[in-house]
Write a structure and sequence with these properties.
The chain is α/β, with parallel strands linked by helices and 150 residues long. The protein has a domain of 89 residues: Immunoglobulin-like, CATH 2.60.40. Helices cover 32% and strands 37% of the residues. It is built from two helices and nine strands. The strands form three sheets. Strands 2-1-4-7 form a four-stranded mixed sheet. Strand 1 and strand 2 form a beta hairpin. Bound molecules: copper (II) ion. Copper (II) ion (CU) binds next to loops.
């Protein structure tokens, strides 16, 4: 009788122990991930203030990937900060597409399906600027977007 009791107690405790250990591991893992993602990109966060942010803005090139298809840009809105150096990589998902911001004199030449084109510039003028595809009737069909320099 006593042995039976002891065994069943041990069996009951084991799953509990496993659950506790698993819980600690999961919580630890989540905490670790949160800590990592929290510190992963300090340079672009406003939490870093003053001089260090300006240095980061002056030195880093911000990569923005843009997909072009019939008839859209994804994303259709890009937000950057005044003074940021921007590198836009346009990838055509079908047909052929280009990228133009007339007001800033920015252009990625016609890019065929599956290929990519790149343009680099410094967003030194605050404002909202339309970008569009100049191929055929793509712009009229809605292949436009907005660059917001804030
Ligand atoms: Cu197009």
């Amino acid at each position: 009788m006593e042995e039976d009791n002891n065994q069943s107690t041990a069996v009951k405790q084991n799953p509990l122990m496993i659950a506790v250990v698993a819980g600690v591991l999961i919580l630890g893992g989540i905490g670790f991930l949160l800590t990592r993602s929290g510190s992963g990109r300090p340079a672009s966060e406003p939490a870093v203030e003053g001089v260090s942010e300006e240095v980061a803005l002056a030195q880093e090139v911000r990569d923005i990937s843009l997909e072009a298809g019939s008839f859209f840009f994804a994303p259709s809105e890009i937000r950057v900060k005044t003074g940021e150096k921007i590198r836009i990589t346009l990838t055509a998902k079908d047909l052929m597409h280009d990228f133009n911001i007339d007001a800033l004199g920015i252009k990625i030449p016609v890019t065929k399906s599956g290929e990519s084109g790149v343009v680099e510039f410094t967003a030194d003028t605050p404002g909202e600027f339309e970008y569009y595809c100049s191929v055929g009737q793509h712009r009229a069909n809605g292949q436009v977007g907005k660059l917001i320099v804030e």
